[in-house]
Amino acid sequence: MNIMIVGVGGQGTLLASRIIGNVVIDLGYDVKVSEVHGMSQRGGSVVTYVKFADKVYSPIIDKGEADIILAFEMLEAFRALPYLKKDGKIIANDQEMNPMPVIIGAMEYPKDIKEKISSKCNLVCVDALTLAKEAGNIKTVNVVLIGLLAKSTDIPYEKWVEVIKKTVPQKLLDINLKAFDLGYNYKK
After folding, report:
1. Could you point out which of 46, 54, 89, 180 has its C-alpha 20 to 30 Å from the C-alpha of 70?
2. CA-CA distance, 33 to 21, in Å (whole number)?
3. What is the SS3 assignment for 151?
4. pLDDT tens digits for range 32-71
5. Alpha carbon 129 to chain centroid distance?
6. Helix, strand or coil, per DSSP, at residue 149
7. Is CATH 3.40.920.10 what the domain over 2-103+111-184 is classified as, yes or no?
8. Residue 92 burial (CB count, 10 A)
9. Where are the domains of the chain?
């Protein structure tokens, strides 16, 4: 299974990759994780690859190899499209965050981006920011998306919760478990 996580700095993509990696390690898979940081502390693109199987030799996901793209922002989902397999799925937060070229007026944010993505693949899009607010903290968008991802796997719900409990700081656990449940139980 090849999962590509895309977002911008500060959205929690690295925690998301740690949770996914820890879940599949607990299940006995060989796991490779590779983090590619852009200007992550300045809102730049961040890409993380999570690959797992009986044996994994490289952490890199090439174009056309991602089974799932977990996108924390719509433009990043659009940019990642070439990496998706023909029958792959994108699980995306519908949030749009303007990159620096848009902020300074050098470019425009692409119009009808959701429609462009969904015309090319199976897109599950959610307002993860609103669900994160409902959970109690906007920084739990990542765990809301993990909940959506978890629901589309054969991995038991209990395993995800067990790993979240081991991975997330204790003081933030209740909010993150609520965020996970909101994502897991999300209905279009």
Report:
1. 54
2. 7
3. helix
4. 988 775 554 556 778 899 999 999 998 899 999 999 999 9
5. 13
6. helix
7. yes
8. 29
9. 2-103+111-184
Backbone angles phi, psi at 114, to 5 degrees: -60, -45
Residue pointed to by tokens 């003081």: 171
Q: How far apart are CA 101 and CA 49, in angstroms?
A: 26
Strands of the sheet containing 2-8, edge to edge, are 30-37, 45-53, 2-8, 66-71, 84-93, 122-126
Q: For residue 110, what are the contacts with CB-CB under 8 A and spacing of at least 6?
A: 75, 78, 116
* pLDDT, tens only, 128-149: 999 999 999 999 999 999 999 9
What is the token pair recorded at 187?
Answer: 């209905």
Q: Tokens 């991975």 sit at which residue? A: 167
Q: Are 49 and 4 in contact (CB under 8 A)?
A: yes
Query: Tokens 């796991």 identify what position?
Result: 31
Q: 34: helix, coil or strand?
A: strand
Q: Are 62 and 83 in contact (CB under 8 A)?
A: yes
**Helix, strand, coil percentages for the chain (3-state, nearest 5):** 45, 25, 30
